[in-house]
Amino acid sequence: MLYSFIRNIKTKIQDMKTISNLCLGAEKYANQYNEEKPGAEHFMLASLDLKDESVRNVFARLGVNPDEINQAIIKQHTEALAGIGIEQEAIIAQTILSEKIKPSVKLYDTKPSGQFVMQKIYQNNKSRGTRLMGVHVIEAILSMEYGIAIRALQAMNIDLIALQKSVETECNYM
């Protein structure tokens, strides 16, 4: 009983570190895109940087280079803005000329898609009772119908059903 209690505390501490790394990483990527708040796409990129390597394992099973996800996200951002009449040159000029967004001193805040990801991984892990890993971010994103993150995966011609199965396989290894 004591061993189980200690193991649960260790898991909670590890999960807090993982959440911290995800949030800091997502903010870093949002900043690179000159955005104030991170969205699901930024959490997806941050999950690739986690030490557990679970996200990289998921994509490796499908023969997908996870380092190409960043370019797919940039393309989705560019296409979305072009769809409302903002050309890529203006985006690049704005990024170069603008100051980098400074981290907020307020409570942690994300775009709605980022909130969805964080809530979903919390709900899933609470019922699952396992430690939090990067693969859980991809699991949450796959439950989304819309957004840049899911469109970027589709634009890379990733079979989302095969990706879901790869996620499940990785979750079973934990």
Automatic annotation (TrEMBL):
It comes from Pseudoalteromonas rhizosphaerae. The keyword Hydrolase applies. GO terms for biological process: proteolysis. GO terms for molecular function: peptidase activity. The keyword Protease applies. Gene3D superfamilies: Clp, N-terminal domain. Keywords: Hydrolase, Protease. This is Clp protease N-terminal domain-containing protein.
